[in-house]
Task: inverse folding
């Protein structure tokens, strides 16, 4: 069997940025707590983690891009929450946010993890942002740490 390359879940030598939306802050704050807890649990130092707040999910790609092109960060975690309403606004915001974040990764080579909840109800959002288990912010941070350690091995 050929060797399989993976990224380790070791954050001690990494610098990572989190860009987090303020809109739906009651959910995003929990995602942010989950991401920071995952960072700390895997050896990340407080002075190597930067958190930038933006107005909403639509603004996440611009902030993520600025972090990625700065050369300061091995990865970026984008956190937000878009809850479907009665209009098409959800589709535009969620779709453009996802497209923009993917484009930042492809354009810069810096992994940007999509920790943006796109849900039908407030209840779904709260469930996915639960701090005790299944926190999608924590999962996004784990993905960022793994990708930040994997990509240099693939270069």
Result:
């Amino acid at each position: 069997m050929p060797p399989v390359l993976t990224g380790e879940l070791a954050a001690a030598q990494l610098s990572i940025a989190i860009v987090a939306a303020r809109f739906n802050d009651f959910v995003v704050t929990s995602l942010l707590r989950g991401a920071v807890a995952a960072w700390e649990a895997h050896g990340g130092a407080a002075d190597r983690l930067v958190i930038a707040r933006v107005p909403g999910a639509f603004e996440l790609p611009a902030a993520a891009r600025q972090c990625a092109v700065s050369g300061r960060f091995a990865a970026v975690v984008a956190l937000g929450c878009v809850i479907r309403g009665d209009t098409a606004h959800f589709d535009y915001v969620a779709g453009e946010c996802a497209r923009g974040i993917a484009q930042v990764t492809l354009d810069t080579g810096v992994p940007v993890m999509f920790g943006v909840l796109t849900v039908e109800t407030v209840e779904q959002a709260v469930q996915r942002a639960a701090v005790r288990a299944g926190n999608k912010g924590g999962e996004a941070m784990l993905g960022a740490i793994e990708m930040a350690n994997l990509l240099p091995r693939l270069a």
Observations:
- The domain at 16-154 is CATH 3.40.50.960 (Rossmann fold).
